[in-house]
Structures are given as structure tokens and as C-alpha cells.
């Protein structure tokens, strides 16, 4: 029996899927293996003040606090329009003629098996 050749698009699709899966696995592996660099430029590090600003914290505590009931009073509500039904005129469907093809006995296909010689080389 002769072996059938695999179509080329099946081979290309298989290789594409293998490549994509390999790429994703390699990307995940790289995320777990590499360590991120923690280099901070000296300009940024010099501007950081390690002391705690207590004046700003005091201002936060004295800020205005709103209760939940006060917050809902200021919310603007927009009513959604109600849909109106517009009556459409009914269309009466027109009858469509059905055409059925008729096959004459001369046009009918008949399958007649034909013998084929198979040599040992083809096996």
C-alpha cells in the first residue's frame, strides 16, 4: 500500500504551534531565572528625604470627611428614556415557486466497479 504524503500546510501549522509553545515556555523560564536590576540613578536617590513629614500627616487628619449619605446627595442621576413602540406595517409574503429538478433515467449515474491490477512493487 502506498503511503500518502502529509499536506504541507499541516506540516507548517504543526511547526508554528511548536514554535509558539516553545517561545512561551522560554519566556516564562526567563522570568523566573533572571533577576531584575535594581540600579537607581544617583540623581533620584539624592532627592529622597528619609525623614517623615509630620505637618503633611496632620493636614490629612484635619481634612474634610464626608459620610456616605452626604456623598449620594451630590450624585446626578440621569433617567433612561423609555422605548416607544412604533408599529410597522405588516408585509404579506409573496409565494415563491419551488423548482424541483427531475432526473431522467439516462442521466442517472451508475457505479460499475472496474478491476485494477496491482503489482508487487506497488505494495
Q: DSSP strand (E) fraction?
A: under 5%
Mean model confidence by pLDDT: 78
Question: What is the H/E string?
Answer: HHHH
Helix content: 25-40%
Distance between the termini: 4 Å
- Structural class given helices, strands, pairing? mainly alpha
Contiguous low-pLDDT stretches (5 residues minimum) are: none
Radius of gyration, CA atoms, in whole angstroms: 40 Å
Basic shape: flat
Quick one: how many beta strands? 0
Major sheet details: none
By DSSP (H or I, 4+ residues per run), the number of helices equals 4
Would you kindly provide a brief summary of this structure?
This protein is mainly α and 123 residues long.
Which short descriptors sum up this protein?
123 residues; mainly alpha; 37% helix
Please give the structural blueprint.
Elements: H1 8-33, H2 42-47, H3 54-61, H4 68-73
Can you offer a commentary on this structure?
This protein is an all-alpha fold and 123 residues long. It is built from four helices and no strands. The chain has a domain at 7-34.
